[in-house]
Amino acid sequence: MQRNTLPCAAHAASGLLMAAALGLASLAHAQTPAQKTPAQTAAQTAQTAQGAQAGQPLSPTLSQAAPPVDPTFSAYSLAQTCKQKNDNVAQGQCVGAIRGIIHGYQYGVLFLGQRAALPANETQRVSLCLRNTQVSSIVDEFVADAAQVNEDSLKHTPAEVAVLGSVHMHHSCN
Fold first, then answer.
1. How far apart are CA 2 and CA 165, in angstroms?
2. Using CA atoms, how far apart are residues 53 and 152, in angstroms rounded to an integer?
3. Is the dihedral of CA 80, 109, 7, 21 positive or negative?
4. Would you say residue 71 has pLDDT above 90?
5. What rounded mean pLDDT belongs to the chain?
6. DSSP state at residue 54
7. CA-based angle 166:22:24, to the nearest 5?
8. Would you say residue 50 has pLDDT above 60?
9. How would DSSP label each residue in 36-63?
10. 163 with 145: CB under 8 angstroms?
11. What ranges do the domains of the chain cover?
């Protein structure tokens, strides 16, 4: 039986998926709040139950409040890494991070488009048009966009949000 894919393509795809999974796992770990003691958990549960019985609104959920930003992977730290044009290691980390963010996002859009009933043209609206776009130009655009933002704001913005915002600004499909 003959294979339909080249072995190096299969290895590259599995490596990319492993890198994306590792990145998402480390991001999830970095954004997981510190564990509470059983006494703290019980007190919070009791307080929530009392608030619900009294008709008071429940405390904000994660979707309502911004999660903490991992300072090692903030928009600020990534922009600083990407600015180091003469450092091959920094450039490798920058390009790898940006490619990983973009590939993860595009796989997410593809996954949603295949598994959810989205309104007409919704997938097109959130997709990125990057055909024949070099990663170096995406890096340059991100660094230029980050330079226009307050440094403190960059430190409190996840790198993924800043990169995808920059890419959508320059390469949206609509």
1. 43
2. 40
3. positive
4. no
5. 73
6. T
7. 45
8. no
9. PPHHHHHHHHHHHHHHHHTTPPPPP-TT
10. no
11. 69-171
